[in-house]
Write a structure and sequence with these properties.
Gyrase A, domain 2, 15 helices, flat, 17% strand, 6-stranded mixed beta sheet, alpha/beta, 14 strands, Four Helix Bundle (Hemerythrin (Met), subunit A), 3 domains, single chain, Rossmann fold, 468 residues
């Protein structure tokens, strides 16, 4: 831990603005004497005490609850003092200022500050200290931020599971299996003269296949967790007046985008996040794709193509009432070719036909048929979007995951596969196998923070709220 990470820290732990309750939180090595000086009495650990919060001249700033948690039995592992009062921003700033001033007050025969080094906490610093003091691992710490940021009920429940350690336990089970196999391989390398074949007797091949199966299972569940956290970007694309803005409004259940029969009404992207079975879907309505001499519309069309190029899925919306018109058919064909050129093959392009309520075309069209006006067929589109996202439905014990977790799990699996290849080789390269198993373990350790660079820690915790 750096010297700065030993400083006592203070912050307003509740959200900015007015509220019924506001909290000022302090964490440090020994806060008992500071609490005694602040309130003129000793606080019993882990008991709420109702008392006045007074200024230096004895005037009352507020009245509220004071809670003292003696380390290591606290969230951060250090002493923690929480002052819970009324949630006005001014009164909370007054309480914070009083604590800062008292901390700098000379005390004792040597005249040293009462609480030397007390400073304002950086974003995420309370959670960072909990991690550094082994109160929680890195995946659990990240889950705290995910719980706060959760945009759906399913995401909140999954983040809560990760916070209680469900994800970490799954990772640890794979890690322990890797450690057991590594011990066998290292034993064979250290004692090559022994006649006993450690690997064969212990079924090293079977153990490695079990590890790969465990990694596949965790990776599959982690992808579902990442979906709940990140969602997918869905771009609605098509010619003018096919009903893109109407479809966005229908999916969102609100009049978000302007809808008129005039071609080129939508000039810029309109974004809205909806949820389908708890999965966040970031829907982007774009300008109608066509050749235009209007400068402003050209900019909107260029932004539409940029959005399509970075989409996780594209809804290619077509007008069923015009599907027999040669000029319209040609325009759709041009758009289809352009989408194929700009989007990777892995990006699903949903073929959707709108305005089924008008009677449609004389022939059956492949794809989803719906009406953004009457909402007919809208549920089919919702299910198709979930399928495009790879959603398999909420499951008991699901947990939240991030992209960095997926990358670490993929790396671990690649190293495990390489270890299996070395084991199956005719020469049985055990030294290379041992190294691949070690690298797989290191990759898993990055998830829980057992092997994590200080730079990565700084990035992760800097994205937390101040006071957390």
């Amino acid at each position: 831990m750096l010297a700065r990470q030993h400083d006592p820290i203070i912050a307003i732990a509740t959200a900015p603005g007015r509220g019924s309750v506001g909290i000022v939180r302090i964490s440090g090595k020994d806060l008992r004497g500071f609490a005694q000086a602040l309130f003129g009495r000793t606080l019993a650990p882990r008991q709420a005490t109702y008392l006045p919060f007074t200024d230096a001249d004895g005037s009352v700033i507020d009245k509220g609850l004071a809670l003292y948690f003696a380390g290591p039995h606290s969230f951060t592992g250090e002493d923690v003092l929480e002052l819970q009062g009324h949630g006005g921003p001014v009164v909370l700033q007054l309480v914070l200022a009083r604590c800062m001033a008292l901390a700098a007050t000379a005390s004792g025969q040597q005249g040293l500050p009462l609480l030397p080094g007390l400073r304002l906490a950086q974003p995420g610093e309370f959670s960072e200290r909990a991690f550094l003091n082994d109160k929680l691992d890195l995946a659990q710490a990240e889950a705290i931020a995910d719980l706060i940021d959760a945009s759906t009920e399913a995401a909140a429940r999954s983040a809560s599971q990760s916070m209680t350690g469900v994800f970490s336990q799954r990772v640890h089970s794979v890690r322990d299996a890797l450690i057991d196999l590594r011990m066998l391989v290292e034993a064979t390398l250290d004692f090559p003269e022994e006649e006993i074949d450690f690997l064969q007797k212990a079924d090293a091949q079977g153990q490695l296949q079990t590890i790969l199966a465990l990694l596949d299972a965790v990776l599959g569940d982690a992808r579902q967790g990442a979906l709940l956290r990140e969602g997918i970007r869905v771009v609605i694309a098509g010619q003018p007046n096919v009903g893109k803005s109407s479809l966005l409004n229908a999916l969102a259940g609100a009049e978000l985008a302007i809808v008129t029969p005039i071609a080129g009404t939508t000039r810029d992207k309109v974004e809205q996040t909806i949820q389908i079975e708890g999965v966040p879907i970031h829907v982007i309505d774009t300008a109608g794709l066509r050749d235009s001499s209007d400068t402003v519309e050209q900019i909107g069309i260029a932004r539409a193509w940029d959005a399509i190029a970075t989409a996780d899925a594209v809804v290619f919306l077509r007008d069923l009432s015009r599907s027999d018109a040669p000029e319209y058919v040609a325009g759709d064909a041009d758009i289809a070719r352009a989408i194929a050129e700009r989007c990777p093959q892995s990006v699903p392009v949903l073929q959707v036909w709108n305005k089924v309520d008008t009677g449609g075309a004389s022939v059956t069209k492949e794809g989803i048929r719906l009406s953004a006006k009457t909402l007919e067929g809208l549920q089919s589109l919702r299910q198709a979007l979930l399928q495009a996202a790879g959603w398999q439905g909420a499951q008991t014990g699901s947990f939240m995951a991030r992209e960095r977790h997926l990358q670490a799990l993929r790396q671990a699996r690649q190293h495990a596969e390489a270890a299996a290849a070395h084991l199956q080789a005719a020469a049985m390269h055990l030294d290379l196998m041992a190294e691949e198993l070690r690298l797989a373990q290191v990759a898993l350790g990055e998830i829980t923070g057992e092997f994590t660079s200080d730079d990565l820690l700084g990035v992760i915790f800097s994205r937390f709220c101040i006071g957390k």
